[in-house]
Amino acid sequence: MSNSEFLKLENQLCFSLYASSRAITRMYRPFLEELGLTYPQYLVLLVLWDQEASTVKDLSEKLDLDSGTLTPMLKRMETQGLVKRQRSSEDERIVNIRITDAGLALYDKALCIPQTLLSSSGLSSEEIYSFNEQLKRMITSVNAFK
Which keywords describe this protein according to UniProt (predicted)? Predict the structure, then answer.
């Protein structure tokens, strides 16, 4: 590929990732609207469905969201009754997040989402898994430059 070809939009990996991220988020939207969730709130619940409790710092690292973005979202989720926020008694700088019964109740309603979206993708589960593994390796490599 010539140098000038590298500067074409269709050859930009960053644009392909950006466009696919937006398209996938649009696919999730109707399912999440039924649950009363935004996509970032769904990501928080994915973590909490797996481990029931976390700290803001751990959520921030796992989701690659800064605390300035995460904190207001967690406050809204607490108002919705999905999570409970509590400062650590040992260190007030640490805020613990625990999923509530209402947050756990959404788990069963969300179970169909990944399979439904996989079916809509036109790709096999093996192709999705392989692509996801490649993306995770790329993220690790790119993050090494931080």
Answer: Cytoplasm, DNA-binding, Transcription, Transcription regulation
Q: Which residue has the tokens 């607490």?
A: 78
- Residue appearing with tokens 């589960």: 125
DSSP annotation of 92: T
Q: Cα(127)–Cα(58) distance, rounded to whole angstroms?
A: 30
How distant is the alpha carbon of residue 62 from its chain centre? 9
Which range among 3-12, 55-64, 65-74 shows the weakest confidence by mean pLDDT?
Answer: 3-12
H-assigned helices in 9-124: 13-35, 39-51, 56-63, 67-79, 101-110, 112-121
Q: Which residue has the higher pLDDT, 74 or 67?
A: 74
Q: What is the pTM of this model?
A: 0.89
- Residue 121's pLDDT is what? 87
Mean pLDDT for 40-49 is 97
Order of strands, edge to edge, in the sheet holding 95-99?
Answer: 53-55, 95-99, 83-87
Nearest to 83 by CA among 64, 67, 59: 59
Parse the chain into domains and list their residue ranges.
Answer: 5-144
Pairwise CA distance, residues 118 & 23, whole Å? 13
